[in-house]
Amino acid sequence: MFLAALILAATPLILGPERVVAEMVPPGGEPFALAGDANRAVVAWTGSGNGVSYRTVDVQGHVTDVVHVWNGGVAMTPSLARSGSVYALAWREEGRDSFNQLVQKVYLSRIAADGSLIDFVPLTIWEGHSENVTLFAVHDGFAVFFASYSGGYLSRVSAGGTLIDVLPHLVSGAPVAAAVDNGTLATLQVGRSIIGGPPFLHLDLAHTDTGEAIALERTFAPPISGEFLTVGGGNGSFLVVWNGTGQVFGTDGTFIGKSTKLGFFAPPQAVWDGLNWIVSMGAEDGLSAVVASRDLSSLSAPFPIGTGPRVKKAALVGIGGGQAIAAWIRAGDDGQPLVVRWISEPSSRPRPLRGR
Asked: Please, which residues have CB within 8 angstroms of residue 120's CB and are 6 or more apart in sequence?
């Protein structure tokens, strides 16, 4: 039994082959998005010029041609999600009008399961200041979260591509991270209790169908940098990660568990794979991950899931059944390859490898 525990500790994840999606990501194209299932992954990125592009790769390594979605203004912060058999891609864009005034918009286009573009003319979600655009799948389609001057907003879009509404999420300021689970939106925000005081991090919850806030505000220790913050949702809970520490809350705000051993690296990603949490961390020599139980009472040692050198940007998405997809950009001297890999847990049993 001791030997079996050692084997589990050494191999908390089974790694598929690394699939190169792009040999050279365009300069300025480090922000990218990832979505997928057990058979196919969709990766989207922005370039140094206008527009946003995507391509797909399957588990056998077959890569489709690049699809250029839109050539409008300067595209930023792409986000992908899958709802049923349909994908959606959301992004924000900046440009100038005929009076040379700055114009900002949030767009959304749908992508079919085979990777073909459905909406050649994207749906306009929002016109005005926006940042931190994040797209989620909900039971009846998609939800786009973004921050504006007056706080966070949640826009709902049907699976058929119809804009349903734009709901004000009742939180002031500009949230820096968001996640959705079981009809609940969780947002992270860095704020100050008094002008000039130390920063603090707090979590707010709201219903995705109404935008109504849930009476909760969890305040955490001051974060060091936005690069070290993330929130993931799954199994009726949210995992907040900051500075190597994690706390889990239910969708009603109930405290579930905490760990201080998630690793202190950037950028963290936290997803629910259908069995456990996977928290990935970039480092100088590649990408690593920790597998943790829902309440963080047990977790694996850090396990390498992606080769470097110098991971500049990473993405992680849980696809259920103990599986996830990881993607990252290598910042090597030979360019900036964008790599995708399917990862899975060796069994459905929880692995209590070390304490929290």
From this structure: 109
Alpha helix (H) ranges present in the chain? 2-10
Kindly calculate the radius of gyration of the chain based on its CA atoms and give it in whole angstroms: 20
- Residues 127/104, Cβ–Cβ less than 8 Å: yes
* Strand order from edge to edge, sheet including 213-220: 177-181, 184-192, 199-207, 213-220
**Structure letter (DSSP) for residue 350:** -
Question: What are φ and ψ of residue 82, in 5° steps?
Answer: -120, 125
Each residue of 339-354: b (16+ CB within 10 Å) or e? bbbbbbbeeeeebebe
Give the integer Cα–Cα distance in Å for 277 and 295: 9
**Cβ contact 82:319 at 8 Å:** no
pLDDT digits (tens, 9 = 90+) for 245-296: 899 999 999 999 999 888 766 668 999 999 999 998 776 678 889 999 999 9
* The overall pTM is greater than 0.70: yes
Please give the Cα distance from 145 to 165 (Å, whole number).
12
- CB of 112 closer than 8 Å to CB of 92: no
The segments of the chain whose pLDDT lies below 70 read 1-11, 24-30, 47-50, 170-174, 192-198, 217, 221-227, 264-267, 283-284, 308-309, 332-335, 347-356
Alpha-carbon distances, residue 123 vs 77, 162, 264 (angstroms): 16, 8, 39
Given this model, what pLDDT does residue 131 score? 85
Measured between alpha carbons, how far is 237 from 246 in angstroms, rounded to an integer? 13
Query: pLDDT tens digit string along 141-191?
Result: 999 999 888 778 899 999 999 999 998 876 666 678 899 999 999 988 877
pLDDT confidence of residue 261: 84
Q: Say if residues 190 and 199 touch (Cβ distance below 8 Å).
A: yes
Rounded-to-integer distance, Cα 77 and Cα 149, Å: 17
Neighbour-count burial of 102, counting CB atoms closer than 10 A to its CB (0-12 exposed, 13-18 middle, 19+ buried): exposed
Q: How many angstroms separate the most distant Cα atoms in the chain?
A: 73
